[in-house]
Write a structure and sequence with these properties.
The complex is a heterodimer. By secondary structure, chain A is mainly alpha-helical. Chain A contains 4 helices and no strands. In chain A, helix 1 crosses helix 4. The longest helix of chain B has 17 residues. Chain A: Belongs to the acyl carrier protein (ACP) family.
């Protein structure tokens, strides 16, 4: 069971790989689209990579609720 | 109605000979080959184990994150377009983007993406297929990415006619400007399919050279020992501009794109007409379109891919449409065959031949075919004053495109 901090670190690695986001910029209050400039296609990549990394299933209709890094962390912690 | 003059004000390329136009042209004039052995593991099982691979990898030019959303054919198109755009000086010219068009084609398109994503689909399932797959493999992808990069709004088009694509794109660009739909067109071709499947396909047709032990001598147009083409990769891009538009901004002009001729053989899906009648008609149309006399066309950058039938059919076409006087060259002897990019890259070579008064060499022409009855700049570059020069491109499907460039 991953801690919130571990999930943030893992998401930061994924965001760097697929979207070139600086890991130092990734924190729970940041919005994927507005703060981190992750477009919709890259968000799909982030979700698939996160499912693989954390063993959580993130349904498509849930993705739209994941506005911030913290939203994603909460979902992953609760569902992995 | 008089046709407005169209000129070339920028050129860009990334090729097996160099990562830009200058290095490519220097290598051509020096007669260097860009062909080498394929060292990738997948080449072991192929009958063809040579290719003309890019001199400069796109990863040296485009950042990693951007590159992973681009097919290789799109990446090289963007690299060549960036050079051509910078070369034209249009970035600071206040160009109305509603008057900027793009015509960039590819012979095969995003096949590397298609095949790589199919591997993922088979191995890991549908959910793992990249969301960037479609914009990476769609045949209009290179044109669309170039259009997006420069904000082109006059229309973005992606002709496809196999190995005539690059030349056809230039011809359509000419048409866009003449018909008043654009003042400036970014035109050219791109190709990047050095991958086992396309190679196996061409090899199964017996279209490719299997001179695996002597890669630099494998592409040998018009030589008796020729045994097929050598696959190359890269892109060539030209900036076409209405002449008065270019003059008004004091642009440097490389050459006039005086005319174009396009025909189709209606003969066979892959074999050229043995007498080159469709090709001859394309050349004749280009001459009429340009209103240039045969005698003024003193140089031809031939399609000549190093295949037994095609090279000689082109000679028949040239003799009937132009006569015996032009000095020919086949730069594919050095670059390999860039398929959909070939016509654009060879247009650039033709333009530079006019500018520098020199015909680049045809290397490996050691033992000319008896049917080669025209003068070729064999082995070494040849100084020549060129008023007008022709560039031929032909493609599977029976496509014939002839482009006529003149000194500005």
């Amino acid at each position: 069971m991953a801690t919130r901090e571990e999930v943030v670190t893992g998401l930061a690695e994924i965001l760097e790989e697929v979207a070139g986001v600086n890991p130092d910029d990734v924190s729970e209050e940041k919005s994927f689209t507005e703060d981190l400039d992750v477009d919709s296609l890259s968000m799909v990549e982030v979700v698939v990579a996160a499912e693989e990394k954390f063993g959580a299933k993130i349904p498509d209709d849930e993705v739209q609720n994941l506005k911030t890094v913290g939203d994603a962390v909460s979902f992953i912690v609760a569902n992995s | 109605m008089t046709k407005p003059d169209v000129v070339v004000t920028g050129i860009g390329a990334t090729t097996p000979l160099g990562g830009n136009v200058a290095s490519t042209w220097d290598a051509m004039l020096a007669g260097r080959s860009g062909v080498s052995k394929l060292t990738q593991e997948w080449a072991d099982q192929l009958t063809v184990k040579i290719a003309a691979q890019l001199a400069v990898e796109p990863s040296e030019v485009i950042d990693r994150v951007r590159l992973r959303r681009l097919d290789r054919s799109e990446a090289v198109a963007l690299i060549a377009a960036a050079e051509a755009w910078a070369d034209s000086g249009l970035a600071d010219a206040g160009l109305d983007r509603e008057r900027l068009g793009v015509v960039v084609g590819s012979g095969i398109g995003g096949a590397q993406t298609l095949l790589a994503q199919d591997d993922i689909l088979e191995a890991s399932g549908a959910r793992r297929v990249s969301p960037h797959t479609v914009p990476m493999l769609m045949p209009n992808g290179p044109a669309a990415f170039v259009g997006l990069e420069y904000g082109a709004q006059a229309g973005v088009h992606a002709p496809t006619s196999a190995c005539a694509t690059g030349a056809e794109a230039v011809a359509w660009g000419l048409d866009m400007i003449r018909s008043g739909r654009a003042d400036v067109v970014i035109a050219g071709g791109t190709e990047a399919v050095i991958h086992p499947l396309p190679i196996a396909g061409f090899a199964s047709m017996r279209a490719m050279s299997t001179r695996n032990d002597d890669p630099e001598r494998a592409s040998r147009p018009w030589d008796k020992g020729r045994d097929g083409f050598v696959l190359g990769e890269g892109a060539g891009i030209l900036i076409l501009e209405r002449a008065d538009h270019a003059a008004a901004r004091g642009a440097r002009i490389y050459a006039r794109l005086a005319g174009a001729g396009m025909t189709s053989d209606g003969y066979d899906i892959v074999q050229p007409h043995p007498e080159g009648t469709g090709a001859a008609k394309a050349i004749a149309k280009a001459l009429r379109d340009a209103d240039v006399a045969k005698a003024d066309v003193v140089h031809v950058n031939a399609h000549a891919t190093s295949t037994p039938v095609g090279d000689i059919a082109e000679i028949a076409a040239l003799r009937s449409a132009l006569g015996d006087h032009p000095v020919l060259t086949a730069t594919k002897s050095m670059t390999g065959h860039l398929l959909g990019a070939a016509g654009a890259l060879e247009s650039i070579a033709t333009i530079l031949a006019i500018r520098d008064s020199v015909v680049p060499p045809t290397i490996n022409l050691d033992d000319p075919d008896d049917a080669l009855t025209m003068d070729v700049a064999a082995h070494k570059a040849r100084p020549l004053q060129i008023a007008a020069a022709l560039n031929n491109s032909f493609g599977f499907g029976g496509h014939n495109v002839a482009l006529l460039f003149t000194r500005p």
